[in-house]
Specification:
- Chain A: Pfam families: 7tm_6 (PF02949).
- Chain A: Belongs to the insect chemoreceptor superfamily. Heteromeric odorant receptor channel (TC 1.A.69) family. Orco subfamily.
- Chain A: It comes from Zophobas morio.
- Chain A: It is a multi-pass membrane protein.
- The complex is a heterodimer of chains A (475) and B (396).
- In chain A, strands 1-2 form a two-stranded antiparallel sheet.
- The radius of gyration of chain A is 31 Å and the shape is elongated.
- Chain A is mainly alpha-helical and 475 residues long.
- In chain A, helix 12 runs antiparallel to helix 15.
- In chain A, strand 1 and strand 2 form a beta hairpin.
- Chain B has a two-stranded antiparallel sheet.
- The N and C termini of chain B lie far apart (80 Å).
- About 2% of the residues of chain B have low confidence.
- The chains are: A mainly alpha (475), B mainly alpha (396).
- The interface between A and B is medium-sized, with 18 and 18 residues.
Chain lengths: 475, 396
C-alpha cells in the first residue's frame, strides 16, 4: 500500500485537520487508509453527528415556537436558536463546499524554491507553524472553557421560567422546567431521574460539539491567513538581497572628459575579475562608500560590451541568470500567495457572510436583553457570556483578516525601501510592476459585500453599544 | 506594416460574423421593441406602420397617466387609497420618462450594435467563448424571470374583477374617466389592461436589453482576462509577443468604449428607475402590511414588490459585476510569466496596468454608481420611508 505522505499546508495543519475530523465534520480526505470499510465508517460517524445536531436544533426550534407568548422567553430562545444556527450553518456549509476547502489545502503542496532564499523560507515557515499551533491551543482552551462554564452555570440558581398564572391572567407564576443547558422541547419528560441524566449528557455533548464545529473552522481559516501573512513577510525580506544581487558591479560613474574621447582599440576597461563574483554573495546591505564607489568603480572609457561577457547592466552572464531566476522565484511565490488568498476567499467568504448576518441579529437581541440586567445573577452571567462569545468569534477572524491587509499593502513599501536605484534595468522594471500590483491590498471579503478587517469589528461593536444605549433610554 | 483597419470599416467590409454573433443575444427584446415601435430602424420600410405602432403605445400610456393623475388629485386625503394608486402611477411616470430618453438616444443604440460587430470581440477559443456565454446566459435567465414576474403581475391586475365577487365591476387601477364607468365597463377594463400590459412588456424589454448588454461587456472582460493570463512572454519573437499584448490593450479600449455607450444610452433612465423604485418599494411594503394575507390583492402587491426589487437589484448586480471584473484585469496580467519579458514589453505592460487600475463603472444619472452598495442604500432609504408611512397611518 502506498505510504501516506502529506506535504505543504496539509502537513502543517494536521492537528487542525485531525480535530476537525474528530468533531464530525465531513472531512473525509487526508487519511492514510481510505479503503471502503473505513471510509463508510467515517462517513457514518459524520452523518450520525449531523443527525444529532439537527435533532437537538429542531428541539430548540420547537421550544421557541411553543414559548413565543412571553416576550422575555421569546427573546432568550431566539438568541439561543440563532447561536446554534450559525454552528449548524458552518457544519452544513463545510459538508456542501468541502471541495473548495480541499483545493485551498492542496494549493501549497509544491511550492517553488531557490537556493539563495531557502534559509529565509524555512525561518518564516517555522514561524507560521508556531503561530498556527499557538492559535489552535488557544481555540481549544477557549472552546473547552466555554463548554465547561455553560455546564456549570446550569447548576447555579433556580431552574424555572415564568408563565401566566392559569387562575389569574394578570399574575405570573414561576413554573419549574428541566435543569438543562439549553431550553428545548422533548417528547419525553426530562424533569428528573434517568431521562434527565441522559438528556443532560446529550446536551453537554451537543453544546461542546456545536462550539467545536464553529470554532475549529474559524481557526482553520485564521491559520490559512497566518500562513499567507508569513509568506508575505518572507517575500518582503528577500526583496533586499534580490536587489543587491542585481546591484553588483552596476555603479558606473563616467568621467565626463572620457565620454567624448574616441575609444582606442587598446583601451582596457577595469573589467571586474572573475573571482569578485564569489565575494558578492555575502553582501549584506551594509552601506559602505568604498563598496558603492571605490571597490567596483569602473574605468574611464565607456564600457566595452562585447568583451568579457559583461552585459548592458554591468552583470556577467552568470550574474544575470542568477538575478533572473531570483526574480522568477519571487514573482512565482507571490503569485502563489495570491492564488492561496483567492482560494481562501472563495472557500470561506460565504460562510463569513452568513456568520455576520446571524451575528448581527443575535447581537441586536443581546443588546436588548442586556438592558434587563438587574444585578449580578445567573441572568447577567449568561447574557454577558453570550455577548463576549459572539464578539470574540467576530474578533477572531477580523484580526487575522486585518493582518493580511496590512501585510499585503506593506509589500510595496518593502519593494521601495530596498536599494532599487542600484539594481539593473530588469530589476527596476520588476520593482515597477510589483509596486503597481501591490498597491491594492489583498483582502478577504464576505462574498463581496464587506471586507474582513478590524473596521468590521469596530462597526459591529459600535452598533451593539448604540442599540444598548438607545434601548436603555427607551425603557 | 499594414495600418490597423478600424472596426467600423471592418463592419462595412463584411457583415457576416463568423462565430457567435453578440447581437443575437438580445434579439428577442429587439423584436419586441421593434414591434412596439421604439427600437430605431436602419431602413425606412414600413415607416408609417412603425410610427403608428409607436403612436398607439404613447397614446395608451399618456391617457392612463392623465386619468390616474386626476383620480389621485380627487383622492389626495386618503393615505391607503393614495398609496394604492401611487404604486402604479410611479411606474407609469418612470416608464414614460424612460421611453422619452430611449427615443432621444436612439442613435446610440445603433452605435452600440456597430461596436458589437467589431472584430476585436471575436475570434477567441471555445474555452473563452464559454465564459462569455455563461455571463450572457445568466443575463438572459434574469430577464426571463423578470418577464414571467411582470406577466404574473399583469394577470393579477386583470383577474380580481372576475374572481372576487366583492370587486366585480371595479377597475384594475384607480382612474378617472369623463363618463360613467359602469355603463362602458368592458371597454374601459380592456383599455386599462391593455395599457398595463403595454407598459409592462415595453418596460421589461428595455430593462432586459440593458442587462444583456452589460453582461456582454462583462463577458468580454472575462475573455480579456483569460487572454492576458495566457500570453507566454518566453516563446516566439519580440514582435509576436508585442502584438498579442497590443491586441489585449485594444480589446480593453473597445470594451471601455462599449460600456460608455451603454451608459450614455441608459444612464438617465436607470436614475429615474432608482428614484421610483425607492418610492414604490416603500409603498408596496406599506400596502403589504395593511392588506390581509390571503387575498388576490396581497398576491398582486407581493408580485409587484418582487418585480420592482428584481429590477433594481439586477441593475446593481450587473453594474457591480462589470466593476469587479474590470478591476481584476491587472491581476490576470500579473499571473502570466511577465518577468520573462523584454524591457520594451514591460513598459507597455506598465502603462496598461496603470489604465486597468481604474475599474469600468456604470453610473445612473452620472453620479450614482451601479453596485451592490447602492442597492443596500436604496433598500435602507425605502425602509426609512416605509417606517415614516407606517407611523403616519397609525396616527390617523
Amino acid at each position: 500500500m502506498m505510504k501516506f505522505k502529506v506535504s505543504g499546508l496539509v502537513a502543517d495543519l494536521m492537528p487542525n485537520i485531525r480535530l476537525i475530523q474528530g468533531s464530525g465534520h465531513f472531512m473525509l480526505n487526508y487519511h492514510a487508509d481510505n479503503s471502503g470499510a473505513l471510509h463508510t465508517l467515517r462517513l457514518g460517524y459524520c452523518c450520525v453527528t449531523l443527525v444529532f445536531m439537527l435533532l437537538q436544533y429542531g428541539c430548540n426550534f420547537v421550544n421557541l415556537v411553543l414559548e413565543r407568548g412571553d416576550v422575555n422567553d421569546l427573546a432568550a430562545n431566539t438568541i439561543t436558536v440563532l447561536f446554534f444556527t450559525h454552528c449548524i450553518t458552518k457544519f452544513v456549509y463545510f459538508a456542501v463546499r468541502s471541495k473548495l476547502f480541499y483545493r485551498t489545502l492542496g494549493i501549497w503542496n509544491q511550492p517553488n524554491s531557490h537556493p539563495l532564499f531557502v534559509e529565509s523560507n524555512n525561518r518564516y515557515h517555522a514561524l507560521a507553524l508556531k503561530k498556527m499551533r499557538r492559535l489552535l491551543y488557544i481555540i481549544i482552551v477557549w472552546t473547552s472553557f466555554s463548554a465547561i462554564a455553560w455546564t456549570s452555570i446550569t447548576f447555579v440558581g433556580e431552574s424555572v421560567h415564568t408563565t401566566k398564572d392559569p387562575e389569574n391572567e394578570n399574575l405570573t407564576i414561576s413554573e419549574p422546567i428541566p435543569r438543562l443547558l439549553v431550553r428545548a422541547w422533548y417528547p419525553w419528560n426530562a424533569m428528573s431521574g434517568m431521562p434527565h441524566m441522559l438528556t443532560l449528557i446529550f446536551q453537554v455533548y451537543y453544546v461542546f460539539f456545536a462550539l467545536a464545529h464553529a470554532n475549529l473552522l474559524d481557526s482553520l481559516f485564521c491559520s490559512w491567513l497566518i500562513f499567507a501573512c508569513e509568506q508575505l513577510q518572507h517575500l518582503k525580506e528577500i526583496m533586499k538581497p534580490l536587489m543587491e544581487l542585481s546591484a553588483t558591479l552596476d555603479t558606473y560613474v563616467p568621467k565626463s572628459a572620457d565620454l567624448f574621447r574616441a575609444p582606442s582599440a587598446t583601451s582596457q576597461d577595469n573589467l571586474i575579475e572573475n573571482d569578485y563574483n564569489s565575494k558578492n554573495e555575502d553582501l549584506k546591505g551594509v552601506y559602505s562608500t568604498r563598496q558603492e564607489l571605490g571597490g567596483h568603480f569602473r574605468g574611464a572609457a565607456l564600457q566595452n560590451f562585447g568583451a568579457g561577457g559583461v552585459g548592458p547592466n554591468g552583470l556577467t552572464k552568470k550574474q544575470e541568470l542568477m538575478v533572473r531566476s531570483a526574480i522568477k522565484y519571487w514573482v512565482e511565490r507571490h503569485k502563489h500567495v495570491v492564488r492561496l488568498v483567492t482560494a481562501i476567499g472563495d472557500a470561506y467568504g460565504v460562510a463569513l457572510l452568513l456568520h455576520m448576518l446571524t451575528s448581527t441579529i443575535m447581537l441586536t437581541l443581546l443588546a436588548y436583553q442586556a438592558t434587563k440586567i438587574t444585578g449580578v445573577d445567573k441572568y447577567a452571567a449568561t447574557v454577558i457570556g453570550y455577548l463576549l462569545f459572539a464578539l470574540a468569534q467576530v474578533f477572531h477572524f477580523c484580526i487575522f483578516g486585518n493582518r493580511l491587509i496590512e501585510e499585503s499593502s506593506s509589500v510595496m513599501e518593502a519593494a521601495y525601501s530596498c536599494h532599487w536605484y542600484d539594481g539593473s534595468e530588469e530589476a527596476k522594471t520588476f520593482v515597477q510592476i510589483v509596486c503597481q500590483q501591490c498597491q491594492k491590498a489583498m483582502s478577504i471579503s464576505g462574498a463581496k459585500f464587506f471586507t474582513i478587517s478590524l473596521d468590521l469589528f469596530a462597526s459591529v461593536l459600535g452598533a451593539v453599544v448604540t442599540y444598548f444605549m438607545v434601548l436603555v433610554q427607551l425603557k | 506594416m499594414a495600418a490597423i483597419v478600424s472596426p467600423r470599416i471592418r463592419l462595412i467590409l463584411s457583415n457576416e460574423i463568423p462565430d457567435y454573433d453578440l447581437r443575437s443575444t438580445f434579439a428577442l427584446d429587439k423584436k419586441l421593441l421593434l414591434f412596439a415601435g421604439f427600437y430605431p430602424q436602419r431602413t425606412t420600410k414600413n415607416r408609417l406602420l412603425y410610427f403608428f405602432r409607436a403612436a398607439i403605445n404613447v397614446f395608451f400610456s399618456l391617457a392612463q397617466l392623465l386619468s390616474m393623475t386626476i383620480q389621485m388629485i380627487i383622492e389626495r386625503n386618503d393615505v391607503s387609497k393614495l398609496s394604492e394608486s401611487l404604486q402604479y402611477f410611479t411606474t407609469l411616470v418612470t416608464f414614460v420618462w424612460k421611453l422619452i430618453y430611449f427615443d432621444i438616444y436612439k442613435k446610440t443604440l445603433l452605435e452600440i450594435e456597430d461596436v458589437l460587430s467589431a472584430s476585436i470581440f471575436y475570434g477567441y477559443s471555445n474555452q473563452q467563448l464559454k465564459l462569455l456565454k455563461d455571463k450572457v446566459a445568466s443575463g438572459q435567465v434574469a430577464g426571463t424571470t423578470f418577464r414571467v414576474l411582470s406577466v404574473a403581475a399583469v394577470a393579477f391586475w386583470g383577474l380580481p374583477p372576475f374572481l372576487d365577487s366583492q370587486k366585480s365591476k371595479s377597475l384594475p387601477i384607480p382612474g378617472w374617466f369623463p363618463y360613467n364607468v359602469t355603463q362602458y365597463y368592458y371597454p374601459t377594463f380592456a383599455f386599462q389592461i391593455l395599457g398595463i400590459a403595454n407598459t409592462a412588456y415595453t418596460d421589461c424589454s428595455i430593462d432586459i436589453l440593458s442587462w444583456v448588454l452589460i453582461s456582454i461587456a462583462s463577458g468580454q472582460l472575462e475573455i480579456l482576462k483569460e487572454t492576458l493570463k495566457n500570453i507566454n512572454y518566453e516563446e516566439g519573437d519580440l514582435k509576436t509577443v508585442e502584438e498579442k499584448l497590443k491586441k489585449g490593450v485594444r480589446h480593453h479600449l473597445e470594451i471601455v468604449n462599449l460600456v460608455s455607450k451603454i451608459e450614455k444610452m441608459f444612464s438617465k433612465g436607470i436614475f429615474l428607475q432608482f428614484f421610483a423604485s425607492v418610492i414604490v418599494i416603500c409603498f408596496t411594503g406599506f400596502l403589504m402590511m395593511i392588506l390581509p394575507v390571503v387575498s388576490m390583492q396581497f398576491a398582486l402587491t407581493f408580485t409587484y414588490f418582487v418585480c420592482m426589487m428584481c429590477q433594481v437589484a439586477m441593475y446593481c448586480w450587473y453594474g457591480h459585476d462589470v466593476m469587479t471584473t474590470s478591476s481584476t484585469i491587472g491581476d490576470s496580467l500579473y499571473m502570466s510569466n511577465w518577468y520573462e519579458s523584454d524591457l520594451r514589453i514591460r513598459k507597455t505592460i506598465f502603462i496598461f496596468l496603470e489604465k486597468t487600475k481604474k475599474p469600468v463603472t456604470l453610473t445612473a444619472g452620472g453620479f450614482v454608481t451601479l453596485s451592490l452598495t447602492t442597492l443596500t442604500t436604496i433598500l435602507r432609504s425605502s425602509y426609512s420611508y416605509f417606517a415614516v408611512l407606517q407611523r403616519m397611518y397609525n396616527d390617523e
